[in-house]
Fold Peptidase C39 family protein.
Amino acid sequence: MAEGRSAPQAHGGPGWQALQSLCLIARLHQVAGDPAALAHQLGLSPSEPVGVSDLLRAAQGLGLKARKVSCGVERLALTPLPALALVRERTAEGEGSGVASHGVRAA
């Protein structure tokens, strides 16, 4: 490991993947982002969930443009990329339950 760099910490709290995904998108735009630093700036502990409003604030804090857009699966292919998608579980009737299955995933 390079001198002055520590090994990445394994955080598994709710929403941690969302912050990691946001940092990955930031890197695509040549913007440095650290999930732990973003969580600290948002005032979140590693065990706290990260909401959509938290992600929007974190993206704006990195200098990225971000907004929330709701769309169905049929329009997902038309969504501008890169994007983060909140995946919701479906009930037997085919309606969304409003519960995220595994947080936010990079699309």
Q: What stands out?
A: The domain at 16-106 is CATH 3.90.70.10 (Cathepsin B; Chain A). The longest helix spans residues 16-28. Confidence is low (pLDDT under 50) at residues 1-9, 97-107.
